Amino acid sequence: MDQLKGIMVSPGIAIGKAFVYAEQKYSIPRYDISAGQVIYEVERFLDAVQKAGAEIEALIAETSTAMGDRENSFLNAHLLMLNDPEFHEQVNEKLKLNKQNVEWIILKVAGEIAARISSLNDEYLRERGVDIYDVSQRIISHLLSIQKISLADLDEESIVVAHNLLPSDAVVMNKQKVIGIATDVGGKTSHTAILARSFEIPAVLGLSNITQSVKTGDELIVDGTKGLVIVKPDKRVIKKYYNTLAEWQKHELQLLNLIEPRYYLISAQVEAPYSNTLSFY
What we know:
By secondary structure, this protein is of the alpha/beta class. Helix content is 52%, strand content 14%.
């Protein structure tokens, strides 16, 4: 049994099996092009940007009702980044200057922008470097016709373990199946933290090397209230946490019993004044 300490970003307790989500790795080609091929690469870039934009707009439409404005705002920010004139200008300039394929140029430009952002003192702004990376990967995946693995496809309750969750990963995850989150990196201002709190999913980030300590199927406890993740807990610890969960649930029911009867009684009197039965479910 190992106990890992991280950053508590979303309170609550999750007990379940780990699903180790590895970021999809693919080789980005690098090759020289002629001056005459620059226009073709620019056209490829613009086509991929258009497809990526349509993808983000579809995500905004899908998630607008399930998420608040704050949680959904990063998708609009991704659209702005995608169509940022300075970003486009840098890609075009490097294409003409370096005469290399556009996938490689995007990787270089995004890396330079992210490096500048990551050097800032403000934690919130530093986290936005992840957005640049996310947007660039979305464009490149369209250029290379790569279908990304999605957390929307989870078919059983799991605690997601990852080095990092990109905003585009977190926003599409199956909220009914993801019961906890634990990552190597990330902080309280990351999109993963914001979304975890919004969806009320216990989460601990900044664990440094949990992806090296856990494999899919391992039993985990995520204690988002204390910023702890317990790997392969023994029966005594599992029992302790289940008892804690039971106490929390009992407390919640007591609170509901204090608040709900009056509400339901009023509803019953308004909607069915002659009924002599009352259901709390």
